[in-house]
Amino acid sequence: MNLKKLSSFLIISIFSLTGFKSFAADVHGVFCGSDLRPNYVEIADEYMKNNPGVNVTLEAVPWGTCQDKVINLAIAGDPVAFSYVGSRTLKGLAENGHILETNIPASQQAMYQPGILNTVTHMGKTWGFPHAFSTKALFMNCGLLEQAGVACEGPQTWDELYSMAEAVTNNVAGVAGIGLAGKDFDNTMHQFLNYLYSNGGQVIDPLSNEITLDSSNTVEALEFYGKLANVAQEGPLAWERSQLTELFNDEKIAMYINGPWGRGQHKEGLDVSTVRIPAGPQGSQGTLLITDSIAVFNNTGVEDHAMALASIISSGDSQYSLDTDWGLTPIMQYPQIGKVAPYNEDYWMMFIDAIGDGGPEPLFVDYKAFQAVMNSMIQGAILEEGDPADLVAEAAEELEEYK
Amino acid sequence: MNKKLRSFNSPTFLAYALIAPAAIYILLIVAWPVLETIRLSFTNSSLAGEDYVGFENYEKMLSSKKFNKIVTRTFVWMFFSVSLKLIIGLIGAILLNANLRGRSMFRVLIMPPWVVPIAIGMLGWLWLYNGYFGIIAGVGMHTGILDGPFGFLAYKQSAFISTIVADVWVGTPMVTVFFLAAMQGVPRDLYEAAYCDGASRWDRFFKITLPQITPVIITMSILSAIWTFNSFEIIWILTEGGPRGATTTLIIDTYKQALGNYKFGRGAARAVVVMILLTLFAGFYLALLARINKKISHG
Question: Which of A59, A101, B195, B242 is geometrically suited to a Cys-Cys bond with A184, CB 3.0 to 4.6 A?
Answer without folding.
Answer: B242
